Amino acid sequence: MNENINHKVKELCRNKGITIKELAEKMGIAPESLSRAINGNPQLLTIRKIAETLGVSVTELFYRN
Q: How confident is the model at residue 4 (pLDDT cuts 50, 70, 90)?
């Protein structure tokens, strides 16, 4: 599951022309915290905030192309 989130967040960031660091800044968290979340076991609140900031649904973060 974590690999899917990590891959999908990076893919969505690329598509939107932003970096993981910029995403973290928009979320109001440290880039290191975002990195730990998408590479580890993120809390639902963090997943929701990532999705909201990227303008996608939570389910899209888990969808594999």
A: confident
Its pTM surpasses 0.85? yes
Angstrom distance (rounded) from CA 45 to CA 65: 24
End-to-end CA distance of the chain: 14
Spatial neighbors of 3 by CB under 8 A, at least 6 apart, are none
Assign 3-class secondary structure to the chain: CHHHHHHHHHHHHHHHCCCHHHHHHHHCCCHHHHHHHHHCCCCHHHHHHHHHHHCCCHHHHHCCC
- Farthest-apart Cα atoms in the chain, separation: 29
Report the distance separating Cα 21 and Cα 13, nearest Å. 10
Look up tokens 């963090």; give the residue: 46
